[in-house]
Design a protein that fits this description.
The structure is a homodimer. Helices cover about 35% and strands about 15% of the residues of chain A. Chain A is an alpha/beta fold. Chain A has one domain: Thiolase/Chalcone synthase (Peroxisomal Thiolase, Chain A, domain 1, 3-Layer(aba) Sandwich). In chain A, the strands form 2 sheets. In chain A, strands 3-2-4-7-1-8-11-10-9 form a 9-stranded mixed sheet, with helices on both faces. Chain A has a two-stranded antiparallel ribbon with strand order 5-6. In chain A, helix 4 crosses helix 14. Chains A and B meet through helix 3, strand 3, helix 4, strand 8 and helix 10 of A and helix 3, strand 3, helix 4, strand 8 and helix 10 of B. Strand 3 of chain A pairs antiparallel with strand 3 of chain B, so a sheet runs across the interface.
Chain lengths: ~400, ~400
């Protein structure tokens, strides 16, 4: 019987870039990919010969549902003229971007490739028909459990109301998430929304699915983001200040509301973060900033608890006390988050990594957190059925290299 | 400057199983997944505690296009009760299955997981509407290059006719591929078709897209297949006769006919196989049997050349001389191939690995090749825009372990 090896990973990030998220009717998928890739190349301090990129991963979700495009890795090779580079397309609902980084990092950690590219991209605004939109937002399945009416707002909202009932959380608590993230987003030139909101505005916005109003909900946004990963022992060839992926976790849970054991927690988030913390050798209190999956304000608040930033049931108290604020214990969504920066599904997790890249390198401008050493990204997809957590740090771990 | 490490991989396969391919109107995606998983578990010589499987990969392509199902890795966790196991969904057109094995293997080679599961699955027969079928078969894209009428038969057939013109290949040469694969398929209890065809039958079958007739074309088939991968130093815990993934390659090329440089070769296949041969430390002449992507008979014949089994232009001669026959130089598609076994997209590459598993272990019954040491699998997707090649052998390589 062989003893299990301690799971460790230490893969360098030497470039990260994205395009400004927004309603990009004037840009095709390909335009957005090119924009993110160019921004990423430009971010490599010492430059990089593109020929040194040996393989790529494309994270994208919605295009192959609504538009019959963005199937297969070729869709990344074509606009970037990367042929014959190997490209894998990954789809994992709203966790697509984070899981794409996870899989690409495995190939580097395995010693198969030295340097690889990850691109996440999504068009959410211009879809071909209302039918396509309904299909997309209802996760339509032609099966007995076909969840008629179970749109994402409805499915997430039931977590909000259950949390209110179980722990006395209020709509004001949720609204504070929106206020914070719009404030941060106004400081992020890449964010879709560039305006502040007040608690009153959030509370009085049109209701979408109680207790989630319009300003509790993230927008539908177009965008793309890219990162370049390499072996840690080659990182300084490309970058003065590389950052390192030190932990990565992924977990699944049931998709269907009628199978869920609880509506006040997402077990997939708790498990994915447990894996990532263990791999990185840190705990939640070591995290200096986090980009969380705030598709709805209640999602962010409950995620504080699932990630261990505060105790279960105390998310409301934690934000009231300033925990996730820019100057708080663990600043959350300094980029504006999905709520203000936007949520182009396949791009979201990769864009979160861009924010950690800027923050750890001290390049986040007006939204800079003071001397962060560890940054965490979190995605939650399929109303809690899939979660990925990645942890980045300033120093490589002694590792498989 | 760090010297590039020699790319090597050595990941053990300790289980492989599939369901009988066919028109499985009576089975859902979930039913097929359960069937393949159970068959795979049963194939593990010494048994395996399911709790030792640490992560999984799901390869599936078409369901999320036509039925809005099989999005995200959760679709594998749910029917197998694998929660909270991490599951990544991979889609890479018709190379989905092979690339899913490739990505899963990277995670084991990286030392992140000891033992992982790969499942490929596809329903091709019962689709919700004619519209869905048209969308699916035309690779519809809502863009300027929208290839109206460019269905897979039309796009592959132009390679057949170009090869005929360039090298004097005949429809009889292509027909020999069908005759061989139907013969082999009749010996494979898992094959969709269980009947022989003659050259005359192939030549006189209704024309689909000249020079490809109905019997030059693979059927649309439902099916699922699964393999279990582990660290080579743990393989003997599970299996008396493990086999090993020794090489894996992947390459992309342009999707669009108007951008292709040639219609007599698939550069993606040549490049993917080059990578895989180099990694495995063998050449084409060392391959003892191969499962090739014979979506059409012309595809298989041209692939002989792209894989280096014979020279460019000599595919017709090679099959005439018996090269790919069961008793030939390199038996090709002993399972019956896509042509006779069927082509459930996401399952195809995984089912090819099952055939290599049986052949290398001497368990292929009436279609057993004599003492094979190396087996190769090949997928080609998106009319040549993506290819994956995996090479399996009987002995592990000195590797990253």
């Amino acid at each position: 019987m062989v003893t299990k090896k301690k799971k460790m990973i230490s893969v360098a990030v030497v470039g990260a870039g994205m395009i400004k998220f927004g309603e990009l009717f004037d840009q095709s998928y390909e335009d957005m990919i090119v924009g993110a890739y160019k921004a990423c190349l430009k971010s490599v301090d010492k430059g990089i010969d593109e020929a040194e990129i040996e393989a790529a991963w494309l994270g994208t979700c919605v295009g192959s549902l609504t538009r019959r495009e963005m199937l297969s890795g070729t869709r990344l090779s074509e606009p970037l003229a990367l042929f014959p580079m190997p490209v894998t397309r990954i789809e994992n609902h709203c966790a697509t971007g984070s899981d794409t980084i996870r899989n690409a990092a495995f190939s580097v950690a395995a010693g198969i490739y030295d340097t690889v590219l990850v691109v996440g991209v999504e068009k959410m605004r211009d879809i071909p028909s209302l039918e396509a939109m309904v299909d997309q937002t209802s996760f339509m399945q032609h099966l007995w459990w076909h969840p008629r009416g179970q749109t994402p707002p409805a499915m997430f909202a039931q977590f909000g109301s259950a949390h209110m009932q179980a722990f006395g959380t209020t709509r004001e608590h949720f609204a504070r998430v929106a206020v914070k993230n719009h404030h941060n987003g106004k400081l992020d030139p890449y964010a879709h929304f560039q305006f502040e909101v007040t608690i009153d505005q959030v509370l009085n916005a049109p209701m979408v699915a109680w207790p989630m109003g319009l300003l509790d909900s993230c927008p539908t946004t177009d965008g793309a983001a890219a990162v370049i990963l390499t072996r840690p022992d080659r990182a300084k060839e490309y970058s003065h200040s590389p950052i390192y992926l030190l932990g990565t976790g992924c977990a699944t849970d049931t998709f269907h509301s009628h199978n869920k054991r609880s509506f006040t927690e997402w077990p997939a988030t708790a498990e994915a973060s447990r894996q990532a913390y263990e791999m990185a050798g840190i705990g939640p209190k070591d995290v200096d900033l986090a980009e969380l999956h705030d598709c709805f304000t209640c999602t962010e608040l409950i995620t504080y608890e699932d990630l261990g930033f505060c105790k279960k049931g105390e998310g409301g108290k934690w934000i009231e006390e300033g925990g996730p604020m820019m100057e708080g214990e663990i600043p959350c969504n300094t980029s504006g988050g999905l709520k203000s920066k936007g949520h182009p599904v396949g791009a979201t997790g990769v864009a979160q990594a861009c924010e950690i890249w800027w923050q750890l390198r001290g390049e986040a401008g007006k939204r800079q957190v003071k001397n962060p050493a560890f940054g965490l990204t979190h995605n939650l997809g399929g109303t809690g059925s899939i979660s990925c957590v990645n942890i980045f740090g300033l120093e490589p771990r002694s590792s498989n290299f």
